[in-house]
Amino acid sequence: MNREVYRNISIVVAAALTLLAAVQCFFVWQLWRDAVADFERRVWSAAYKSVYEAFRAEDARVVGSSGVIDLDLNDFELYFSANLLEADALQPYVAEIVDRTRDDTVILRSDSAMPSKDPLTAEIEIDDEGDIALRVHVEIPYRRFLNEMWGVLLSAAAIVALLVATFLCLLRVMYRQKSLDEMRRDLTHNITHELKTPIAVACAACDALRNFSADADPAKRERYIDMVSVQLAQLASMVEHILSASLVEQVPRLRKERFVLRPVLDDIAAGCAVSGGKRAEISVECDEELRATADKFHLTNVISTVIDNSLKYSGESVRISVAARRASAGVEISVADDGIGMEPRHAKHIFDKFYRVPTGDVQNVRGYGLGLYYARQVAERHGGRIGVRSRKGAGTTVTITLPDDGR
């Protein structure tokens, strides 16, 4: 999957999530509007009914602006409260009589306090001329609406959250697949590049022996044979590195044994010091009696791999410190160097399969991104862990922690 396809899919997913959230919000908003509208309808119905019963019945005396107004809000409140209760809309309210001929001057007002929240206001004419009207301010029960709609709100939020999580997981899988594809391409490129060089050198040496009578000169013959041997050894090393990542997965069970750690570390340090091809100072700090319980073969390969990385990713000279000590979690083996280091965003991925710190089109150090993946597999198969601390230009420290089963 190329970058453009991944970007387009991400845009489509983001648009789908936005549309889904908008639809859910509109659905909830419509339910809210319907609840408020239904409450308003019940209040208006109760108000009309109460006005008719209290003021427009035969015994109610209501005269226009030219006469005397004889009204009693207590009668209206008795009817209105009962009608609101019957309509399941009883809320705090204030009733007023207003004179429309005098700019809606309030003539009478009930003793109730004005609702503090944004109230629903209903105004109904009392007399036939429309000069006198009754106005009621009823508190809208928003809290009750929320209590009645919490199930709908919760289910809508759960659906949105579930779909968002699903889409994010999909994007994460796609991103990981994209990264794996890129790393596999890099692996193929690196393997092809590295295999071509020793093969070409070995073929050239063989051609010289066969076609240019190099075998007639013992010194030349010996030099060309040595070249072929070195290149074949390099090819064998490459194959060994590629197979090492799957080796630990193929072994159904590690062959753990209890052994003294110091001699093993000394042998590893001595072997790596002469094979790095640069000035390397490798020191070992370990108690003479410190013992570990592990598969010696795989543990040796892991430490050698870590030291080999310290040699590769450093300058013309490097100082490496290999230390082992007993800790609360078991036995800790650390390899610290003063090499080029790396940024934290790369350090958290270096134990992933095929991952290599990107350096653009220039690859001064060849590799396959399998060595540290193999190291993590070995540590985890032992029930331990492996971690790294690094800073760009300030070196790297890799720590392997193994449970001390024989403590």
If you had to describe this structure to a student in words, what would you say it looks like?
53% of the residues lie in helices and 18% in strands. The chain is α+β, with helices and mostly antiparallel strands and 407 residues long. The strands form three sheets. A five-stranded mixed beta sheet has the order 6-8-9-11-10, covered by helices on one side. The longest helix is centred in the middle third of the chain and has 70 residues, at 142-211. Mean pLDDT is 79; it is low at 58-68.
Radius of gyration: 42 Å
Percent strand? 15-25%
Structural class: alpha+beta
Cα shape: elongated
Order of helices and strands: HHEEEEHHEHEEHEEHHEE
Cα end-to-end separation = 50 Å
Main attributes?
single chain, 407 residues, alpha+beta, four-stranded antiparallel sheet, 11 strands, elongated
SSE arrangement:
Elements: H1 3-55, H2 73-86, E1 93-99, E2 105-109, E3 119-125, E4 132-139, H3 142-211, H4 218-250, E5 257-260, H5 261-273, E6 279-286, E7 291-294, H6 296-312, E8 317-327, E9 330-337, H7 344-347, H8 371-381, E10 385-390, E11 396-402
Parallel strand pairs: 6-8
Antiparallel strand pairs: 1-2, 1-4, 3-4, 5-7, 8-9, 9-11, 10-11
Short description:
This protein is 53% helix and 18% strand. The chain has 407 residues and is α+β, with helices and mostly antiparallel strands. Helix 1 (3-55) packs across helix 2, helix 1 packs antiparallel against helix 3 and helix 3 runs antiparallel to helix 4 (218-250).
